[in-house]
Amino acid sequence: MIIKPKVRGFVCVTAHPTGCAAHVQEQIDFVKAQGPIKNGPRNALIIGASTGYGLGSRIAAAFGSGAKTLGVFFERPSEEGRPATPGWYNSIAFTNAARAAGLFAANINGDAFSDDIKKQALEIIARDMGPIDLVVYSLASPRRTHPRTGVVHKSTLQPLGAPYTNKTVDTDKGIVSDVTIPPADEAGVADTVAVMGGEDWEMWMQALADAKLLAPGATAMAYSYIGPSHTWPIYKDGTIGRAKIDLERAARAIDANLKAHGNGRAFISVNKALVTQASSAIPVVPLYISIVYKVMKEMGIHEGCAEQMQRLFATQLYNGNSPKFDSEGRVRIDDWEMRADVQAKVAEIWPQVTTENLPQLTDIAGYRTEFLKLFGFGLPGVNYDADVEPHVPLT
Ligand code: NAD
Questions:
Q1: Are 91 and 75 in contact (CB under 8 A)?
Q2: Which of 6, 58, 154, 271 is surrounded by the most beta carbons within 10 Å?
Q3: Ligand 1 probe mutation, 51, 135, 248, 303, most atoms within 8 A of CB
Q4: What Å distances lie between residue 218 and 102, 257, 335, CA to CA?
Q5: Rounded to 10 degrees, what is the CA torsion of 15, 21, 26, 28?
Q6: In testing the pocket of ligand 1, which one of 107, 245, 267, 276 has its CB within 8 Å of the most ligand atoms?
Q7: Where in the sequence numbering do the catalytic residues fall?
Q8: Taking a C-beta distance cutoff of 8 angstroms, is the pair 333, 314 a contact?
């Protein structure tokens, strides 16, 4: 089958197996080129391991520190004549590369919010891995079926209190326009907190603790975003921001438990805004990303998921280093994005952007390249005119 990109709004409904493998390999090569991350994780559980920041974390743990990894994710598998979602191919590529390097890698494709998937994970950890010393919680999901109540909660990306109007870009068509997003009601906030807040992370940690599968001194980490004030009404001060406040609450609760049992630690790492499947769905944010990419590339400080996670592991978590917490107890690997000179430049460009000058004032071209790469398209060395088998098993 010849597989070409089919972009529909902010998703691409096809994915290329060879291209996804090349994308994963790029990230592995980057991490390996930075050299070993000493005193790193030995046994890592990555929840949300197939794309974006979770995949970057898994690569840093495995190829930086030689960790055994168990990856949990929720991807549509391939079928005869139908490509999978990219995280399926990414996970196959990661697993093949890890095993070729002599590293243990296991995968669970299923709903991480469910009791059943947690049980499956505990079985693999007990049987094949031993106690976990790093838990990375990197889920980005539009919905969660609550394992106790059966209620399906849907997360939203909305402001609170009042409608929010700002510039946005249709990244596919290159059209800049104003968008107005109505505010969420309290039920919308509660649903978003139920999906993207910290309860499920706590359930994972409790399940591991109950099964005595947490190593003494274990680290648990989840990811958040803050960004500049242009995006606050839709992000930090919106429904997702409320969920992130709950994630921080969970981090404090998990931290207290881990400290009481073997001097472990739990915290939130605030990461850089990057093109991922999750971030491309947020109004306004893709325009911000296109601008900040331009500014950071011009300054020579642009990073992708692997670069961010390698730097997080190497300079904050391991290698003899300790996390440098902000006043709220968060690690800030968004430090370069939030530098005053970067944000001053973004603030200067933001009001000037129009459909006409979008290619000059922003890195919309880089945005599109990165977006297509998420689905395995546009990778150097991949022949996209060649026949490729879409149906690949995950072992
Ligand atoms: P992503 O869409 O690339 O990855 C989401 C992952 O979650 C995938 O592995 C997916 O398979 C998995 N997943 C989703 N629902 C699941 C379910 N029910 N069960 C099991 N797995 C499931 O997203 P991302 O951008 O890497 O986001 C990960 C985290 O990083 C989120 O907490 C996000 O808020 C945070 N973050 C993202 C950015 C950004 O700009 N992308 C910036 C800072 C922080």
A1: yes
A2: 58
A3: 51
A4: 24, 11, 25
A5: 130
A6: 276
A7: 235
A8: no
Cα dihedral 28→32→36→40 (10° resolution): 0
The whole-angstrom separation of Cα 67 and Cα 80 is 34
Helix axis angle, 199-210 relative to 239-260, nearest 10°? 20
Residue with CA nearest ligand 1 atom 15: 141
Q: Which atom of ligand 1 is nearest to the CA of 142?
A: 15
| 3-state class (DSSP) for residue 218 | strand
What pLDDT sits at residue 10?
86
Q: Give the tens place of pLDDT for each residue, 85-117.
A: 999 999 999 999 999 999 999 999 999 999 999
Q: How many whole angstroms from 140 Cα to the centroid of ligand 1?
A: 3
Task: Report how far residue 251's alpha carbon sits from residue 124's, in angstroms, rounded to the nearest whole number.
Answer: 25
CA distances, 202 to each of 146, 209, 378 (Å): 13, 10, 39
Ligand 1 centroid to Cα of residue 52, in Å, is 6
Rg (CA), the chain: 20
pTM of the model as a whole: 0.98
Backbone angles phi, psi at 193, to 5 degrees: -65, -40
**Contact predicate 208/214, CB 8 Å:** yes
How far does the centroid of ligand 1 lie from the alpha carbon of residue 256, in Å?
25
Domains along the sequence of the chain with CATH: 7-374 (3.40.50.720)
Q: Which residues in the chain come in under a pLDDT of 70? A: none
Q: Which amino acid is at 73?
A: F
